[in-house]
Design brief:
2 copies of one chain form a homodimer.
Chain A lengths: L5 E2 L7 H10 L4 E5 L5 E5 H17 L7 E5 L4 H12 L3 E4 L6 H11 L3 E4 L4 H7 L8 E4 L10 H5 L16 E6 L9 E5 H11 L12 E4 L6 H4 L1 H8 L2 E5 L4 H11 L3 E4 L1 H14 L8 E4 L6 H9 L3 E7 L6 E4 L11 H9 L9 E5 L14 E6 L4 E3 L14 E9 L5 E6 L4 E3 L2 E3 L1 H9 L4 E11 L3 E10 L7 H8 L11 E4 L13 H7 L15
Parallel strand pairs in A: 2-11, 4-5, 4-6, 5-8, 6-7, 10-11, 10-12, 12-13, 13-14, 24-25
Antiparallel strand pairs in A: 2-3, 8-9, 14-15, 16-17, 17-19, 19-20, 21-22, 23-24
Helix pairs in contact in A: 1-9, 2-3, 7-9, 10-11
Chain lengths: 540, 540
């Protein structure tokens, strides 16, 4: 039928994003707050010019299309330039998480066969330590060393004139690589294609997703090495919004940026917002023009959602993972939002939102049977769609089923209103008497109790019930909250048979390199734990 | 590189739109106001069920993938169902404009080789008249005849159970066909692909385009046969917005719908809005919850933009054509909107907006040289992008250049702020002394003069200047406005050398089947016209 007539060929290539920004939004500001507090300003015209020069610099070093170009950097305009410079010459951008342990960084860089590494001065010591053990990196460039450093980014670009045309190709070509932090086994690489990245960016700007317009000013407080800062550096040139990038996550620095740059949209994990809220409550700082906050990475507690709401800020609770580009669901306002009571709105926002056009979610039981979207049953969450992984980098087998369903490792319920609610990680769920207890709900319930700073629930082997919950608690400074007080609070939050059989206090809980609670380490610490007394356990 | 890893295959097929709507927004209302005032309600779940049954009905009649299924209908849920039913079984939806003359309808239906025609009762006489002359139509179905009519849509679907899976295929497969009204020569068919349609829909919902969210309630007052109602019936299921379709364009009917259905977004051509404004000014009716109005098809006059603004309604002035799906530019708010004075905002809105990500605009002179975006020079407008035509239906040569640039036949200026301003149609521009006079600006200037209801400017041959402008005016009811008064007003609006050499009054101006001013007919009417007196002409 193709000979009957046709619309135009137009490969979905990532560089079209910055071509558009350069042409239509060339003067739109990109603000960077570097480590140490220095603030610089650039715009799309300059970023694209530098990206062209970087593409020339890469070619001058013999880098070819398909080669991997790594970054070890926080958020700033240099990093943004490097993304588009690397992809512009046909390379594959590989963002490495600098918070990983040395051996993980080595594994990832060697597995990816990175040929170039561009890094922040702040990570120079890491680079120095590992330099001799990187197997394929020939070129090291520092983003923010002094211009007279021959290895500085500026010096590296200096000989080039920017007279360069992007490498064209197929829209299925890979453009970016990001490794999952991998709580079990070695990290695995997710290889994004031009097409998947572009479709994700187009979906992300929609009013029910990040709601990004030219008028918006967006500050992601999620690192560019973390699932591509949730796609914001791709979506920004599409809309021409103002972009604020901060390498510095101290709340006082961020609050200055909210005020000085008139930020309207922001995004981050709950830990970041907890720090921000604490700072604001303590100092009287404020969030100025902020209107929309996207929260993802882990569940946002009710108090956090209410705190933002009381300041007229709409919370979009989102869920996703590196394997999903990352947006799998997001809490745009539903059709009946204006008719909802405030309590109904909060209840809606506590769920992880709805699926944007493109992706599809379902939950299945242990036999793989699809469960109803009744808001009652929970099961393993699966996802499919154009920005969802099919096969990890260099693997020989698909990670997704032939019909596309990818097992997320999360446990969730799907509600009749279309929202998805994460109830646990598959490996963290506590299996008691054939039923599942959500460790996340126990933890969220516990942190709502005065005097509890942080809490983690894990399953402990039990002769009768297979597993029963142990709650491990960090008290707030100066608090002497007791197990009975916590239990009395929990009973108002969860089913009686979910109540932990024991509550233990610790000074701190273990966290992963990306700041998430490490249940794996906690389980190791409590491997020998046995309940001293089963009396507290209530029958079902 | 494909073996290195991959994201998922997910062909950009139109039926994914309604799959999404059925799953995520199944109960979202679709309201239809039928000819005669009857209002019915349905939702995506029911529309998709009926579309599946229609796909079965088509297959039962021997219709195969790639066959053309025509509609001759106004806006209502039956028409919407037919769109997705036709495409769902792999067919090509062909929307015929019922306002065309018999011979044009015949030409189009026979050229398309339509095999099925589904029509409104209101056009039954047309169908009856032409029935014997349609060369390929075997099946005639009436959308709104009584259920006991064996040719009714309901009766046609009745035997089928909806147990049907959409025909899958390549994303480059055609899905819809729409003929341009063609002021010269025979109408030409634009064949939209699944891919072009889906990308256009994804772009259209963006905040800087139609700004469509689940919460929105959208009423297109543009017919579904007119460039697919500007794509709204594709964008609606993507977002889950409420959709209001009216077969009846009487302002009183439309105002009732605005109020009763709490419409927030609407779209139409200036003629429709003129009628609406006149009705509201006369009766005191109002537009209730309306917040966003998209105006396209021809230029919106200043007074119209100001009228909407004074009611707190944001005007998005757009430009496009059947060949561009249709959105080529649209006036979302620019970055500095909030800092603009009211007058600056109006000036911005008077232009036809900016290009959304995906399409690209440029202007060229008569030799094809690209002109600067300086807001001063105007030239022939060209466009390219993934939802722009490459080749007309059944043609053997491309309509676009090898690098994608498609000549729109419009004359425009591109401004430094990224906006595009249509100054004329290539064939309407008045060429005087080697320079161009915009007929549109003369007309817009003239209708701003009290007592002028409608105006048209055409070029009349002139011995010295090649052409000079003649202004043909329809006076408002009861007005006796004079040429001198009009000229006195015009002098405040346009350059002195643009002033028409003569002004003639007529009772009415000729219009095309789609309601546009027919300059072609007007030029024929004034073919023998000569200026009686060249004294009025001022030198340059």
């Amino acid at each position: 039928m193709k000979s009957l007539g046709a619309m135009q060929d137009w490969p979905l290539r990532v560089m079209r994003l910055v071509d558009h920004a350069e042409r239509e939004h060339g003067a739109r500001e990109i603000v960077s707050a570097w480590a140490g507090g220095r603030v610089t300003r650039t715009n799309w015209r300059e970023v694209v010019y530098d990206a062209r020069r970087m593409a020339q610099a890469l070619e001058a070093r013999g880098i070819r299309p398909g080669d991997r170009i790594a970054t070890l950097a926080m958020n700033h305009s240099g990093h943004l330039t490097a993304w588009y410079g690397a992809i512009g010459m046909g390379g594959i951008l590989h963002t490495i998480n600098p918070r990983l342990f040395d051996e993980q960084i080595l594994f990832i860089a060697n597995h990816a066969e990175d040929r170039v590494l561009i890094y922040d001065q702040a990570f120079a010591a890491t680079v120095e330590r590992l330099k001799s053990r990187f197997e394929a990196i020939e070129t090291f460039v520092c983003f923010d060393s002094k211009a007279d450093d021959p290895e500085s980014f500026i010096a590296w670009l200096a000989p080039h004139d920017g007279n360069y045309c992007w490498v064209e190709g197929d829209e299925l070509d890979p453009c970016a690589l990001c490794y999952t932090s991998g709580t079990t086994g070695n990290p695995k690489g997710v290889l994004y294609s031009h097409r998947s990245t572009l479709l994700h960016a187009m979906a992300e700007v929609a009013p029910d997703s990040f709601n990004l317009s030219t008028k918006a000013c967006v500050m992601p407080i999620v690192p560019m090495f973390h699932a591509n800062a949730w796609g914001i550096p791709w979506a920004a040139p599409l809309t021409g919004c103002k972009l604020v990038l901060s390498a510095d996550y101290r709340p006082e620095q961020l609050c200055d940026l909210y005020r000085d740059e008139e930020v309207t949209h922001s995004a981050g994990v709950p830990t970041v917002w907890l720090g921000m809220i604490e700072h604001i409550e303590r100092t009287g700082a404020n969030l100025a023009n902020l209107k929309y906050v996207t929260i993802g990475g882990s569940a946002a507690p009710r108090a956090m959602i209410e705190w933002f709401r009381s300041r007229g800020i709409h919370v979009m609770h989102a869920w996703g993972m590196t394997e999903t580009s990352p947006i799998g669901s997001i809490g745009g306002m539903p059709a009946n939002w204006n008719e909802m009571t405030s309590e109904e709105q909060v209840a809606f926002s506590l769920h992880q939102g709805r699926t944007p056009f493109g992706v599809e979610l379902r939950i299945v039981d242990e036999e793989g049977k699809v469960l109803p979207r009744d808001g009652v049953q929970s099961g393993t969450l699966q996802i499919r769609g154009p920005w969802v992984i099919r096969r990890y980098f260099k693997e020989t087998a698909d990670a997704a089923a032939p019909d596309g369903w990818f097992d997320t490792g999360d446990v969730a319920a799907l509600h009749p209103d279309g929202t998805m609610q994460i109830t646990d990680r598959s490996k963290d769920v506590i299996k008691s008497g054939g039923e599942w207890i959500s460790s996340i709900e126990l933890e969220n319930g516990a942190v709502g109790c005065a005097g509890v700073s942080e809490a983690a629930a894990i399953g402990i082997a039990h002769p009768k019930w297979d597993e029963r919950p142990l709650l491990v608690v960090v008290r707030s400074e100066g608090s002497d909250v007791t197990p009975d007080q916590i239990r009395a609070h929990l009973i108002t939050q969860v089913a009686r048979w979910w109540l932990p059989d024991a509550i233990e206090f610790v000074d701190e809980l273990p966290h992963t390199a990306t700041g998430k609670l490490s249940k794996k380490t906690l389980r190791e610490q409590f491997a020998a734990y046995r309940f001293a007394d089963a009396v507290q356990m209530v029958g079902r």
